[in-house]
From TrEMBL:
The keyword Transferase does not apply. SMART domains: UDPG_MGDP_dh_C (SM00984). Pathway: Glycan biosynthesis; alginate biosynthesis. Belongs to the UDP-glucose/GDP-mannose dehydrogenase family. Keywords: Alginate biosynthesis, NAD, Oxidoreductase. It is an enzyme of class 1 (oxidoreductase). Residues 320-427 form the UDP-glucose/GDP-mannose dehydrogenase C-terminal domain. This is GDP-mannose 6-dehydrogenase. Its EC number is 1.1.1.132.
Length: 441
């Protein structure tokens, strides 16, 4: 394919050179004449493993050249990769100035008739927040081109997952390829660029592609921060943190796995809250600052509060709650977030009914009974014997269980409003219903 790459920094330079080495005809575009001259001389404008030899080779064969002329680049290509920077503003917000400018230039070049034949596809590879492409960049393109994105011009978002220092290696062996497509033809054009590369390809809506890069980097930062904080606590307690992490990393069932990484409701139970409090307390006693670990429980509490706020926004007063134990298939109520939720709603004066098939006040013993008598002493008058009793009572139902009896009884398109705390199996279908509210989706 004939490809133009806008921006010859790390991402653009590596993308241009690697695509050229795969057999594509690539034109690099930049406003910096020094970078243009370096590329045309077969030299890399960035320091990176293997990039110097790669650029020298593809320039020698004529597969890569560079220019500052946007019109020339558009005329000589069918796909444009936008790889300009999106730095932070002083207040932390995303700077889209360079994205807007290059989008205007590409749109103006297309409007001048520089592109002859076939539909041109503009692919945004720069990191940008969800909504940037559809709400900011697509209108700019449509304004300048005088056409409709997805019809007259292709648009896609293709985030990169290149690490500085190993970016060439990462390009040819990617963890995944993500294509946010405005329409199937736009996605096809991007997929063709990477044909033959390993790794799974995900073709998703444009905002999803924009968000994935942020999910990745936020988690990477969280992992590094977690490891460093835990290491500092271990050192203060006289423990070899690397031995601890070696064992931690060996657990591929719960630790290094998909476990616990699906958005849902708050966590609870007899272990997680207790152990987090104990670890943070030990860190404080040792004068070790652990802001990530110290904010896990407050974050959990904030997420629970979001459920309360969803109920408040309905303006309804009669509320039903399905589920009470902290985990399905158990009657353990200790530090259950659903008990906490019930307590907050009851304390705010809501007329509450609760059903959990695993929980019966007459069967509660020991610590379980003591916990409920302390946190929710009015539970007996709130418990309902059946799903139907709750549905008949409630104007709003919070679903905190996947009990088949509950799922089969939940109405569609009528009845009480549904606040989904667990992502119901038919959540996608329910999203179109006006009475459905999801907590984290």
């Amino acid at each position: 394919m004939r490809v133009s790459v806008f921006g010859l920094g790390y991402v653009g330079c590596v993308s241009a050179a690697c695509l050229a080495s795969m057999g594509h005809e690539v034109i690099g575009v930049d406003v910096n004449q020094v970078k243009i001259d370096l590329v045309n001389d077969g030299k890399a404008p960035v320091v990176e493993e293997r990039i110097g030899e790669l650029i020298a080779e593809v320039v020698r064969t004529g597969a890569l050249r560079a220019t500052g002329d946007v019109r020339e680049a558009i005329m000589g290509s069918e796909v444009s990769l936008v790889c300009v920077g999106t730095p932070s503003e002083p207040n932390g917000s995303l700077c889209t100035t360079y994205l807007e400018r290059v989008t205007e230039q590409i749109g103006a070049a297309l409007a001048e008739g520089a592109k002859q034949g076939g539909r041109h596809t503009v692919v945004f590879r720069s990191t940008m927040l969800p909504g940037t492409c559809l709400n900011l960049l697509v209108p700019i393109l449509e304004k300048y081109v005088g056409g409709t994105a997805g019809v007259d011009i292709g648009v896609a978002v293709n985030p990169e997952f290149l690490r500085e220092g190993t970016s060439v290696r990462d390009f040819f062996d990617p963890p995944k390829t993500v294509i946010g497509e405005l329409d199937p033809a736009s996605g096809d054009a991007v997929a063709a660029l990477y044909d033959g590369l390993p790794g799974e390809v995900f073709r998703v809506p444009v905002p999803t592609a924009e968000a994935i890069k942020y999910a990745d980097n936020a988690f990477h930062g969280l992992k590094i921060g977690f490891a460093n904080e835990l290491g500092a606590v271990c050192q203060a307690l006289g423990v070899d943190s690397h031995q601890v992490m070696d064992v931690f990393l060996a657990d591929r069932k719960l630790n290094i796995s998909p476990a616990y990484l699906r958005p849902g409701f708050a966590f609870g139970g007899s272990c997680l809250p207790k152990d987090l409090r104990s670890l943070v307390h030990a860190a404080r006693r040792a004068d070790v600052s652990v802001p990530i670990l110290a904010h896990v429980l407050p974050s959990n509490s904030d997420h629970l509060q979001r459920a309360v706020e969803l109920v408040e926004r309905t303006g309804k007063r009669r509320v039903g709650l399905f589920g009470l134990s902290f985990k399905p298939g158990t009657d353990d109520l200790r530090e259950s977030p659903l008990v906490e939720l019930a307590e907050r709603l009851f304390g705010k004066g809501y007329d509450l009914r609760i059903h959990d098939a695993n929980v019966s006040l007459s069967r509660l013993l020991g610590a379980n009974r003591e916990y409920i008598e302390t946190r929710l002493p009015h539970l007996a008058q709130l418990l309902a014997d059946s799903v139907e009793e709750v549905l008949e009572h409630a104007e709003v139902c919070l679903v905190g269980t996947r009990d088949p009896a509950v799922l089969s009884a939940l109405p569609h398109g009528g009845g009480p409003l549904i606040v989904d705390l667990v992502r119901l199996p038919d959540a996608e279908a329910r999203r179109a219903e006006p009475g459905y509210m999801g907590l984290a989706w």
